[in-house]
Structures are given as C-alpha cells and as structure tokens.
Predict the structure.
Amino acid sequence: MTELLELDRLSVRFLLGQRATVRAVTDATLRLRPGRVLALVGESGCGKSVLAAALLGLLPGNAQVRGKAVLRGGIELLSAPEAVLARQVRGRLIGLVPQSASTHLTPVRTARSQLVETIRALGAATGADQLAERVGLNPADLDRYPHELSGGMAQRVALALALVADPQVILADEPTTGLDRPLVHRTVDLLAEAATDDRAVLLITHDLAAARRVATDVAVMYASRIVEAGPAEEVLTDPWHPYTAGLLAALPDGGFRPIPGHPPMLTELDRIEQEWGCVFCQRCPEVPGFAPCTGDPELREHGDRWVAAHPPC
Ligand SMILES: Nc1ncnc2c1ncn2[C@@H]1O[C@H](COP(=O)(O)OP(=O)(O)OP(=O)(O)O)[C@@H](O)[C@H]1O
Ligand SMILES: [Mg+2]
C-alpha cells in the first residue's frame, strides 16, 4: 500500500459503569500518505486526542476500541500487543511531538544529554549534531538547559527527539498550545518540513489557521465523527459540511462569527443521530450565512473528498 497509515472505521467508546457510554471516536476512516501533512481539526472535546491515544495503545482500561489502523509494513495498531507498540511503534515507527516542548524536556539536563539518551535507547544510527542540523538548530544550542532555550528552540529539540528513529509518521497533538502566533507559524512550518517523501505528519489541532498554513489534507471532526475530509485547499475554501463552514466563519478573516451553541454531550450521540440523522443538526441553522442542508447524496464522495451524510435540517 502507498499509505503510511490507514485508519478504517476506528471507533472508541468509554464505558462509565452502568450509567453511560461516551462515544469518543466513531468510524474514523483516514489515510496518511507519504510527504503529506494531514490536519485533524475540530472543537475541544470532539475526540482528536482519543483517536491519537488509540493509535499509540495509550487508552485507559475503560476504553472499547473497534476498527483497524494499519501502518505501512503491516502492523495493525489497534490489536498489536503492548510489547510490539512499545518496542516497534512508539518513538520508532511513530514519532511523537508533545503539546508543550519546553515542559516536556527534563529541566536539569541539557538538550544534548536528553537527545543522546533517546538515540541510545532507540539504537539509532544518527548523531545528536546531525539531528540538530536537520531541524535547523545550531548544534551548540544542544548544550543549553531547557530554561536557556527559546520557545522555538525547544520546539526544534522536541522535533529532533521525535525524528531520532526516522519514523514514518510524526504525530503532533496540539503542538502549538500556548504559543504566540509567530511561534505557532514556525512550529507548524517545521513540522511540515518533516513531511518528506517517506514520512507523513498527523497534526492534531483546534487551530484552523495553523492547519490552513501547512496542511496538504484536512479531516474535520465533530462530536466524535470525521464529518469532512479532503485536500486542504479544497476543504478550506469550499466546505461541503456546514460544520466546516462554521469553523471557517469563526476565523478572523472569515468574519469572526463563532458557531453559536455547544457540541452535544458524547453520551447522547446515539439518541441525537436517531432523532436528527446528523450530529450537527441542532447547531446547523445557527451557522451564519449557511444555507440549510440539502442532503444531496451526490455530495458524499468525489475523488479524494468526502463528507458525512447531513440530511436536510
Ligand atoms: N477515560 C475517559 N473516560 C471517559 N471519557 C473520556 C475519557 N478520556 C476522554 N474522554 C472523553 O472523550 C472526549 C474526547 O476527548 P479528547 O481529549 O479526545 O478531545 P479533543 O478533541 O482532543 O479536545 P481538545 O481540543 O480539548 O484537546 C471528551 O468528551 C472526553 O471527556
Ligand atoms: Mg486533545
């Protein structure tokens, strides 16, 4: 297969005792191709990090997982034993970029010692200076302690750590949280540079502007479901799903009009879908300037683009 990672109807539910079930991810189907940056976007709580945790085998005991997630080479992540995930996947086939680079680094050790330790632990052939240069960091800066690094330098160290074993996928979950806009740009640009011929980046973010800057592909998630996916320049200029339209209208250059209301409780999704047919229906008429759904079945799939069914409101 040409895909580096292929998700097929990945679903995650959390069982809350006898009381309720949280539907955190529902039937997520995605393809991550070499040289691409796929941005997974959506409001807080829609299931982005749970999807990432499922791929890495890091879900808590009350999670029920269904579907498939196959890495190029054949490892199926959802059924792989923990030993395989620990020894072959995390840090090796999938490199992780943390949410906050400077707090992720151990404060009392230089960046170099942390990088060298990771290189040794993963048995990698590359050297620390070589990795620093690959992420645009002066090797001399590796001898600094984390508090001596600027935010941008810390992000570069974090990316160097993720690249140690030359992973085929870089998974970055909210790597720009708390950063100012110029540093957001530098961080996502750096991630995009890591998407080479043989590597892809899965950028999880609720920052649509950052996604728009670097993503080649976008998947839009709402209330546990991917509601729209496709090439970034198409999805973000001509959205097919009213939720995507709503997210774009909330951006400063989209008019600064946030979608009124809140996403539904994830314990209520079965009922809402039965009643309305679409999880966004309750907010859809509120999206500024958006025409009511037509429910046109022709709209569901075209080339690389896909949109979830959204029957007329
Ligand atoms: N162990 C758990 N038990 C029950 N519910 C959980 C558990 N872990 C996560 N959830 C729920 O799953 C949903 C999805 O959470 P997730 O962290 O994936 O959101 P997110 O899209 O990453 O949001 P954010 O943008 O804020 O990071 C949330 O409603 C969360 O409360
Ligand atoms: Mg998250």
Summary: The radius of gyration is 20 Å. The pocket of magnesium ion (ligand 2) is lined by residues 48-49, 173-174 (CB under 6 Å).
